[in-house]
Design brief:
Layout (H helix, E strand, L loop, with lengths): L1 H82 L10 H15 L2 H12 L1 H24 L4 H8 L1 H18 L2
Helix pairs in contact: 1-2, 1-4, 2-6, 3-4, 3-6, 4-5, 4-6
């Protein structure tokens, strides 16, 4: 009888040991899966954080760009009035419509450059607006070049209407200053 009790006790201990071993292995696998899941979640959170930082940076840059656009537009309005140039009739931003109107008019009628040269020479307000426009636009392009990692955006601005208008206004200012 004692041997039977000891045998039952040994069998129960063996079954308990096997079950404990099985549960330990299963728990170890679950811990590895949890570790993998937590690592994946951490990496995902880092990616989300990076995306949100970039989005915040883009929104901040967009807000700053809008302020610069409005500042440039304020300089262009009296210049356009002096040159008798109307903005393009498109759905673009008012700055791009104004610049497009100036560059379109210059493409149709090169005498617009002479009108601007005279206005710069004769009207100190126009000279100030042109000078301020050139300074602000150049600062904006330099900022874009320094912050644009791949250069695509800054090249777009430089080769686009902003760059063309800078050349046009600088040429008119140089001609006006050389006649003094």
């Amino acid at each position: 009888m004692e041997n039977t009790i000891i045998l039952i006790f040994v069998i129960v201990c063996a079954i308990f040991s096997v079950c404990s071993l099985f549960l330990s292995i299963k728990t170890g696998k679950n811990i590895k899966n949890i570790n993998k899941t937590l690592t994946y979640q951490y990496n995902l959170l880092v990616k989300i954080q990076t995306i949100l930082k970039n989005k915040f940076s883009v929104n901040e840059t967009t807000d700053k760009a809008e302020i610069i656009y409005q500042d440039l537009l304020q300089d262009l309005i009296p210049i356009m009035a002096t040159m008798d140039v109307m903005p393009r009739n498109t759905s673009e931003h008012p700055l791009w419509r104004a610049l497009g109107g100036i560059m379109d008019e210059y493409a149709k009628n090169p005498f617009v450059l002479e009108k601007l040269r005279r206005a710069i020479k004769l009207d100190s307000n126009i000279a100030h607006n042109v000078s301020h426009y050139l300074n602000r636009a150049n600062m904006f392009l330099q900022h874009m070049a320094s912050t644009d990692s791949d250069g695509i955006l800054s090249t777009t601005f430089t080769d686009g209407l902003l760059g063309q208008s800078l050349t046009f206004f600088a040429q008119a200012q140089t001609l006006a200053n050389s006649d003094k």
